[in-house]
Design a protein that fits this description.
It contains six helices and two strands; from the N terminus they run H-E-H-H-E-H-H-H. The protein is mainly alpha-helical.
């Protein structure tokens, strides 16, 4: 059982480190003339992710009281999503953030996984929120937080795309790209 908590703890630490990086990136962007857009919903994203880990730990503790069974397929999906996460975040570099940070007049990043779709990081987060609980048979957490994530992403993506269209070349660069389904240019 301890290994389960170490694994989940590692993911929590990873997310906290990402928040620190996001805050540093936000500060850098503001110093370059950037601004935050659509910040009204950000507190709900933070709450969703915080309560996700609370719910996951509670469900894992209660469901797995007799011993932990790891499911291999969701584990593989989660680990692949981690590779995708690193790829997406490293591709965006200083432009990656947990907030909607806009730097007017800058060309949007259209390389790495962004060559294929508009929102690969949201696909990855969606996979993670679904797969991580399934590794430990925490079905309620997987279902409830996947649905809540879909609701908040609907708001988030609308705000993000609106802000990017107003201040960057987003619409021109991504007009042929699907939001979540890869498309390829030849």
């Amino acid at each position: 059982m301890e290994l389960v908590y170490i694994f989940i703890g590692f993911v929590i630490i990873q997310r906290l480190v990402e928040v620190v990086i996001a805050n540093q990136n936000a500060k850098w962007m503001k110093n370059q003339g950037g601004y935050e857009a659509g910040g009204e919903h950000y507190k709900y994203i933070v709450a969703l992710h915080a309560f996700f880990f609370v719910a996951l730990l509670i469900e894992v503790s209660s469901v797995q009281a007799g011993g932990v069974k790891w499911s291999l397929i969701p584990l593989v999906v989660f680990l692949i999503a981690q590779i995708g996460r690193v790829w997406a975040l490293s591709t965006l570099g200083r432009f990656w953030n947990t907030r909607i940070m806009i730097l007017p007049g800058v060309k949007v990043v259209a390389k790495g996984p962004y060559r294929f779709m508009r929102h690969p990081n949201y696909v990855i987060v969606t996979l993670e929120l679904f797969a991580l609980p399934l590794i430990f048979q925490a079905y309620w957490t997987a279902i409830v937080f996947s649905l809540l994530n879909a609701v908040i992403l609907r708001v988030r993506i609308k705000e993000e795309e609106r802000a990017l269209k107003e201040a960057t070349d987003y619409e021109e660069v991504f007009k042929e790209k699907g939001r979540f389904i890869p498309s390829y240019d030849e």
